[in-house]
Amino acid sequence: MIGSLVANKHPILKFTSRLQQEIKFCLKHHGKFQNADACYYQVLIKVHACGVNPVDTYIRAGVYARKPTLPYTPGSDVAGVIEATGKGVTKFKTGDRVFTCSTVTGGYAEYTIASSDDVFHLPEKISFKQGAAISVPYFTAYRALFYKAGARPGESVLVHGASGGVGIAACQIARAYGLKVLGTAGSQDGLNLVLENGAHEVFNHKEENYINKIKESTGEQGVNVIIEMLSNVNLSNDLKLLSSGGRVIVVGCRGSIEINPRDTMAKETSITGVSLFSQTKAERDGSAAALFAGMESGWLKPVTGPEYPLEKAYQAHEDIISSKGALGKMVLIM
Ligand SMILES: NC(=O)c1ccc[n+]([C@@H]2O[C@H](COP(=O)([O-])OP(=O)(O)OC[C@H]3O[C@@H](n4cnc5c(N)ncnc54)[C@H](OP(=O)(O)O)[C@@H]3O)[C@@H](O)[C@H]2O)c1
To answer: What digits encode the pLDDT tens for the residues 265-308?
Structure first.
């Protein structure tokens, strides 16, 4: 119904030109593709780039808590140009450069439909490729640091897994807000990238004794906040790295781990999960305001890593999970 299946290892829906016509028709006449009310506030975007997030692979594989309605096209983080607008849309016009934090029809496509509430203007100085690296990474990093950890200027933060999409974003944001930033990566190139993007100090999480090196750096006091990308590996060590009143924020988790709850007691530390999907509209608007300030003043500079054509989306999904060393955000280019 919505496009032809690309017969690759993983089914990715691709828009056909007939569908583009259908969507334009729908936006014009309200109601063919979505129901009339929804269509009224939607926009059609010509996609130039779309971010690949690990969560896309969990959803595709059916192991994520949220199961999509089928047929399903992945992709929430699109950057592109407005092609058409529903009649109720006042914020955008045809030709505007935009990025999205969610789409109705999926972003791994040449065209996508999004609710205008989920669309933001993309400043000229940010490329489409970079625009596809903003939404999930930066909104998650901001949420983890401020809404969940309550991070304050002058505190220290360990971004445990700093070389990927969320990690680079967390380093840039934390540095801009006056935190002392420690970051980890698993390759020399990754370590360099993390240093270039806000970290004061870096550590290699593939080195056997790197936890001791972090302890040496933070001393008796420990680290105030840990933004954790692989908690099923690191949570037990994280609890030992924290300061009094320290907070671990679980962003990434790919399995279970044994911890000793006693490790939280003497220093009254806490472990808090974060889910971007749980953010309220008010929280999202707050994050957006802070991130737009970062784009204006220049500290928010999305770093993109490997790029793939749309037909290689299946390869991107394999590579993001079995990465040998992240170097910023993975994107599909249309
Ligand atoms: N909770 C939420 O709402 C939310 C939102 C977004 C993302 N996430 C999750 O957060 C995680 C990171 O997302 P992402 O987009 O940044 O992924 P990504 O771009 O693939 O980056 C993965 C990061 O994990 C690092 N890593 C690998 N081994 C590690 C280890 N032993 N200890 C610490 N870090 C390690 C990688 O470092 P090297 O490659 O340099 O080794 C890289 O920095 C994923 O699991 C994702 O599903 C959750």
So the answer is: 999 999 999 999 999 999 999 999 999 999 999 999 999 999 99
**Angle between helices 54-61 and 313-321 in degrees, nearest 10:** 110
Q: Which residues line ligand 1 (CB under 6 A)?
A: 53-55, 136-137, 140, 160-167, 184-187, 190, 205, 229-230, 233-234, 251-252, 274-276, 320, 323, 325-326
Task: Supply the mean pLDDT for the chain.
Answer: 91
Task: Take residue 85 and report the two structure tokens written for it.
Answer: 């607008």
Neighbouring residues of 18: CB distance < 8 A, sequence distance ≥ 6:
none
Can you read off the two tokens belonging to residue 330? 């993975």
Q: What confidence score (pLDDT) does residue 66 get?
A: 85
Percent residues over pLDDT 70 in the chain: 89
List the structure tokens of 320.
Answer: 């993001």
Residue-wise pLDDT tens digits, 123-133: 999 999 999 99
Q: Of 190, 274, 187, which Cα lies nearest the Cα of 226?
A: 274
Contacts of 248 (CB under 8 A, 6+ apart): 225, 226, 228, 231, 235, 238, 239, 242, 269, 270, 271, 272
Measured from the CA of 324, which atom of ligand 1 is nearest? 39
Q: Whose CA is nearest to atom 34 of ligand 1?
A: 161
**Cα of 291 from ligand 1 centre, angstroms:** 20
CA distance 191 to 185: 5
Whether 201 shows a pLDDT value over 90: the answer reads: yes
Tokens in use for 91? 């914020």
